[in-house]
Amino acid sequence: MNSSADKPLIGLKAITKSYGTHLVLDKIDLQVRSGEVLAIIGPSGSGKSTLLRCINYLETPTAGVINIGDTTIDATRAVSRTELSKLRRRVGMVFQSFNLFPHMSVLRNVSLAQERVLGRSRKDADERSMHLLSRVGLADKASQFPIRCSGGQQQRIAIARSLALDPEVMLFDEPTSALDPELGLEVLAVMRELADSGMTMIVVTHEMGFAENVSDTVMIMADGKIVEKGPSADVMRNPKEERTRRFLRAVHDR
Fold first, then answer.
1. Is residue 72 a contact partner of residue 108, using CB atoms and an 8 Å limit?
2. Through-space distance between the first and last CA atoms of the chain, rounded to whole angstroms
3. How far apart are CA 201 and CA 33, in angstroms?
4. Which residues contact residue 173 at a Cβ distance below 8 angstroms, ignoring those fewer than 6 apart?
5. Which residues of the chain have pLDDT under 50?
6. What pLDDT, on a 0 to 100 scale, did the predictor assign at position 47?
7. DSSP result, 231-254
8. Is the Cα torsion angle 1, 27, 245, 189 positive or negative in sign?
9. Mean pLDDT, the chain, integer
10. How far is CA 20 from the centre of its chain?
11. What percent of the chain has pLDDT over 90?
C-alpha cells in the first residue's frame, strides 16, 4: 500500500447519473492518489458499480468532470472517440463475469488486445502475456481454453488481460462475487499482490476483510451518495456515521 501525497491520479467532480427521473449518482466528488487502493462498500443499489462504469465511460455520466492523469472529460459536452480512447488506455477494468473468448486459448485471450490496441507484435504480446500469466500463477494454463479453467482461474486470466494493456488504474467490480469462497481467495491474493506493487485500484467489493486489511481507504455509499470515507481500519472499526454502522452491523450479523 502506498501513502504517497502526490497530486491525485483520479479526480471526480460532481459526477451525476440519472436514468430518467431516477437519480443513481448524486454529485460524487472523489480523489484517489497514485498508488492508493480504495475499497467501495455499501448496500445493493447504492450506485457503486455505476460509479465505476462512469469512470471509464462504460456509462455516460449525466453531469460532472472526470480527471485521470492529464486526461479530462466533461460530461456536459460531446466526447470524441480520441478522448475516449485516451481515457480507456489509462484504465483497466475487471468485472464480476470473466468475459473471456471461449474459442481462444488463455494466451490468445491475454495477447489479442495488446496487438489490436497497442500495436504489439504477436511475439512481444505473447512474451508480455506469459509474464503476466506467471504473475497470476497460471503460466501452465497458457495453451488451454478458458472452459478448462476454474472460475477463480478465469478471473485471474481476466486480471492478466487487463494488466496487459499497461493501465495506470485498475477498477474491480465485485470480482469475487461469482466465485465460491475458496476460489475467491485466489483472486484476492492476486489483488493483494497488485496493491503491494503500487497499482492504483478502485475496488467495489463485499469482501470486508479485503476492505479493512488491503485497501488504504474505505468509502461507504448509500442512495447514490458518499456516506463516509476515511482510512480503512478507522471506517471499518470506528465508523462515524449511523448509516455506516447500520450497514456494517447488517454485514456482520448475516
1. no
2. 29
3. 10
4. 49, 52, 53, 93, 94, 95, 96, 204
5. 2-5
6. 95
7. EHHHHHHS-SSHHHHHHHHHHHH-
8. negative
9. 93
10. 27
11. 87
CA distances (Å), 169 to each of 32, 45, 56, 241, in order?
Answer: 10, 24, 10, 29
Instruction: List the strands of the sheet with 71-74, edge to edge.
Output: 22-33, 8-19, 63-68, 71-74
Q: Is 172 helix (H, G, I), strand (E, B) or coil?
A: strand
124-158 pLDDT, tens per residue?
Answer: 999 999 999 999 999 999 999 999 999 999 999 99
User: Residue 178: its pLDDT value, please?
Assistant: 86
Q: Closest Cα to residue 137, out of 200, 186, 188, 191?
A: 186
Quote the pLDDT of residue 252: 81
Cα separations in angstroms, 91 against 67, 85, 200: 12, 10, 10
Place of cell 467490480: 173
